[in-house]
Amino acid sequence: MEYRKIKDDDDEDASDVESLKGKSHTVASSNIALATLGTGGSTERINWKRKGVVTCALTILTSSQAILIVWSKRAGKYEYSVTTANFLVETLKCALSLLALTRIWKNEGVTDDNRLSTTYDEVKVFPIPAALYLFKNLLQYYIFAYVDAPGYQILKNLNIISTGVLYRIILKKKLSEIQWAGFILLCCGCTTAQLNSNSDRVLQTSLPGWIMAIVMALLSGFAGVYTEAIIKRRPSRNINVQNFWLYVFGMVFNAVAIVFQDFDAVANKGFFHGYSFITVLMILNHALSGIAVSMVMKYADNIVKVYSTSVAMLLTAVVSVFLFNFHLSLAFFLGSTVVSVSVYLHSAGKLL
Amino acid sequence: MEYRKIKDDDDEDASDVESLKGKSHTVASSNIALATLGTGGSTERINWKRKGVVTCALTILTSSQAILIVWSKRAGKYEYSVTTANFLVETLKCALSLLALTRIWKNEGVTDDNRLSTTYDEVKVFPIPAALYLFKNLLQYYIFAYVDAPGYQILKNLNIISTGVLYRIILKKKLSEIQWAGFILLCCGCTTAQLNSNSDRVLQTSLPGWIMAIVMALLSGFAGVYTEAIIKRRPSRNINVQNFWLYVFGMVFNAVAIVFQDFDAVANKGFFHGYSFITVLMILNHALSGIAVSMVMKYADNIVKVYSTSVAMLLTAVVSVFLFNFHLSLAFFLGSTVVSVSVYLHSAGKLL
């Protein structure tokens, strides 16, 4: 369960890597945008390509994330403080954003769009996603009084539905009926793929448990959709600046969490107590997947993000068959088929 | 398992009831058809209404069939010969067809379309569905060497896919891509709804078991699609005549089955040994659902039939909650949702 927390925390994220390696690409694409003004075909193709690349990156990073979790479980239990790891993930993402920005400043000079300094009007919304995730993570401690851990994993699929609903309401973007059908199927398929002999216990969840699960799904969905809204509100603003500020607040909130949750452990045993090679790998992976999430928010949307992480979950299971000799259940095959069909429907059902 | 056999046998069926109670309706609808020649709106509405009525009838009859099976199991084991019950189902359907025809002859007189006498060219294809079902039922005895009964119930969902594929190949009717997606989901959803803790055993099925399951699915799908082809080949021919000949061959094949399988029991204990009130109810139900299947074949198609019987399976489970205090599993809810979405997709994905 522990690494889940890291994952939840870094849902608000940066696309630093994009600028690290893709700066010239961005310049090139805006030149092309000017050149093809009127037809727009090439720009659209480049946008599609970029969308595809970031989506694949997110899928691969998310699936390797889950594999690292399994690996760490096999390797034994790690006695590090989860809050310190979360803090380091935010710090790493912040550092990568700054690194990307220094390269951009060197190449393009400082402009209104890429300067780090900001206004209260721009920055005031940036703490909100981090605060939402913190609140959700606090709730997570209480929900286990009502639901066991496997049950919680199943209830987390409610996130899919809440993201879809809030995406519609807050971002006012429309999905076609076929795409909605696909989205419901995505939720059913993911849950089916996770079914095991104890899953039925989740049906005995009491009313407070259900309410908390729904509130958590709404918080998580809202944080995701709100992050997309922040990133897309100023289209010309450089994303690395936007991410920098998102991550600064992520660092602040996680620092507070260290003080409240793990102060004694950190004071007595040190900040890095219990860290190992695999902990470092996982922090690296979480930071990169965080960046990938941000890029997907910028170049695609929350819906694509949900599809991407869902497909990642299935990929993880398939890879685990080879790596850890996992056995796939019939429920997994059925769920995977349903998820595949839902991916097809999302693309086939596009509003023209 | 025993009643399954009855069910499999009467997949080729009659719409006698339609004529018993719907004669005036048929006359009325042909009058309307003439009146609205050119616009066709009313005719279409009547066709849709008729399609809806027969589909609902099939759904309700099929679900009550399964409830009778549960009831009969609760009431204890019945020591009657299954082959004699199958034979009586065919006989009852044959009698109902004749009864419907006598009414038609009285109202309309004997015409080329409703006369009972037939040609070799017309009748030569009628034994084929009955023969296919017989062959499939024989295979059923052998497949249990490779698969257990719950596993067989799961593998039977392959029928859905085989029906879709053969419907496309033999009847050359097109489904849209969205409808194909719906059909795959229907298969996944039905299987998911039936999942239990032992379902994974079906994945250990050996190659001969898989081959037999696929052959059985193809035989069953082929018999269904072939029956539709026979019924629709001569559109003006009265369906009760077509059904009469189908059922005559059903009687013949089942008579042969009595001789080969239950000759001793029938000779020593009598034809009706072990019959009870519930046996009679089940025979009646099977005859009526057989008739409903035939009506669906005539006024709709095999795809609608598959959807109808699948939805019936889900309805049965829901009704069983109230009747027998069944507990519905999480898998059932997920499967039902997937089936519901697939029904929506079938209708939303219609080729225009």
Automatic annotation (TrEMBL), chains A, B:
Region called Disordered, residue ranges: 1-22
Against SUPFAM superfamilies, the record matches this protein to: Multidrug resistance efflux transporter EmrE (SSF103481)
Spell out where the chain crosses the membrane.
52-71, 178-195, 207-231, 243-260, 272-294, 306-324
Primary residence: membrane
Name a single GO cellular component: membrane
Q: Where in the cell is it found?
A: Membrane
Domain of life where this protein originates: Eukaryota
Topology relative to the membrane:
Multi-pass membrane protein
Q: Name the UniProt key words of this record, in alphabetical order.
A: Membrane, Transmembrane, Transmembrane helix
Q: Which NCBIfam families match?
A: nst
Protein family:
Belongs to the nucleotide-sugar transporter family. CMP-Sialate:CMP antiporter (TC 2.A.7.12) subfamily.
* Name of the molecule in the record: CMP-sialic acid transporter 4
Query: What organism is listed for this UniProt entry?
Result: Eruca vesicaria subsp. sativa
For this protein's source organism, the top of the classification is: Eukaryota, Viridiplantae, Streptophyta, Embryophyta, Tracheophyta
